Amino acid sequence: MRVHLYTGSLQIVAKSGVGQAIFHQKAMLEKSGVEVTEHWRGHADAVHINTVFPDAVLAALRAKLRGEMVAYYGHSTMQDFRNSFVGSNLLAPLFKKWICFCYGLGDVIITPTPYSKRLLESYGIEKPITALSNGIDTDFFAPSEARRKLFREKYGLTDTQKVVISVGHYMERKGILDFIALAQKMPEVRFYWFGYTAPALVPEKIKAAMAAAPENLCFAGYCNQADLRDAYCGADAFVFCSLEETEGIVVLEALASGAPMLVRDIPVYADWLQDGKNSYKAATTEEFKEKLCGILNGTLPDCTAAGHRVAEARSVTAMGQKLCALYENAESLSPVYAF
User: What is the pTM for the complete model shown?
Assistant: First the structure.
């Protein structure tokens, strides 16, 4: 089998979850013995499209003219477009129409979770939609005391200093306002937010909240995957207050790295994260504080081993096998998702 992984807009999304998903797809396929190309030379059995920029539409049409199957990845929904960049709420209905057009160009649509599958189906998209995790490289992201030490030395932290991290763009949808509020309520804990968004795209409300953030919260900016891996290993908890996700690759990265997990109780996690078993969930800032205190002081049971098994079930190797099975059964697709 030969798969064309279209990367025409990769430079735009490389630092986002979509960019990481593209890298994961390459690893999935190669670990399954599939030949992967990023060029149009020669015939491909399938072409992967991951973005909804105009060039991706042209790529999908070109693949169809060449008689190649188009696998369109549904990473985005109207729901997770809202409360993101400046003007996103106003544009959300138009964005919905656009992504429906884009995804409709696929012979099959692949989306990360059963939740995002249900959302896309509710839009009236008639093409087959399959739920398949974006996957995670569990060889790269793994627990490590050495990396924990590196992270703490880099930021001047003691072995006993409690540290909480989160990752994402400076978006209300990513839960940055709740993360700031949580840091304000827990001054004895060090908080770090990894990620960066160009100031022109950040709403004024977010800029103001970040400017008024307490001293125990550090906006560490964008960091590469190796440094982020160290942060996961060095943290005493990963807190993800995001209000909407189609999966959350950073959640898989943190679980694979053995970080204690606390997420917002939203529908996307209902099918695979269980409160008190492989992670913890909260709905309000007060509940986030209560459960985070329980994680940090050890009064709540340690769920990291079970959380790590969640990540292992979604390894790039396991997901690559499911992706190949999807292609082999392309004419009678059924949901493929690892639980």
Answer: 0.92
